[in-house]
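Tutorial, part two.
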Amino acid sequence: MADPASVAAFSGPLRLLGRTEEELPRHPILHGTAGTLLTIALPLPEGKVEWAGIWIAGTAITFLGAADAPVRSSAAHGVSGAGARVVDLLSEANRRYLLESEELDARVALLEDAARTAPARDIWALQREATRLRGRIARSLVVAGEVSGLFADLFPGAATALPAVVRDLERARDTVLTIEQSLGDLLLMRNAEASNRIAETANRLSEFSNRIAVLTNTSNIRMLGITYLALLLGLVSATILFLNTGATILGMPSAAWVPGIWVDVILIVLTVVPIAIVFSRPWVALILRDLRTTELRSAEGIHDLPEVAEPAGTARTATAPVRPT
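Running the prediction step on this input gives:
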């Protein structure tokens, strides 16, 4: 938020440049036919900004906004006049930048002490403040370059005094860059922790999924055993059907003429032949070969059915799940 008193001082030059005072320049230097406006953003407490500027119209120089800087670094370089004033203004800006950077660094240290619990929004807020501060320092560096370059004749002695101020501004900018890097590391650490928590949750879900898959596989194997047993019973029933049919026919009064020995022979044939045909099939032989395993699986499958489950409170012997071979 800009300080209203400092903004009001820019109304005249801004009108001459075709702007309103509500449109404070985003660029540090504005050139126009009426003159050139150089602007510097000076930090104030509570996030406010005090604007200072230099209006250059021909050879006339007008300082706008902030009052005279309390820092008198120009005296050490023997500069006077407009050159001394711009050097002192940039030195005061650098002093404020350093103070704000120290405050930001202290707040970052508090966040680092509570890195695991610090809200991410607080880290992002500090990141934005550091970025704004770095932008203000960059604005001052541009103004210093313009004063010591294009307008060096209008600010006598500034070209020799400003290099030291520029070095101080660059150090302040590097400090802010370090703060931004620290905040970026904090954000990366928070993202890594969040990623680790998500990975742990995913691993737990995978473990549950694997357990469900094992139980499902075991259940399928047991139901397969029941199916094999039902198929075997069906085959036995099919072979006995021929014997029962023959016995029923031969037991009727109309078949009394058949000698007893032939009745026995026919019943034996109706028993042996279907059994030989059915149980000589390869797939039936395979079922019979694994009959013991099939019986165990079937017993487990039947035991798990709700209709034959043990009453509540009855102890049950744990059995290891049968895995597919």
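Helices lie at 4-8, 11-16, 81-113, 120-148, 158-250, 260-279, 282-289, 291-304. In part three we will examine how such features are distributed along the chain.
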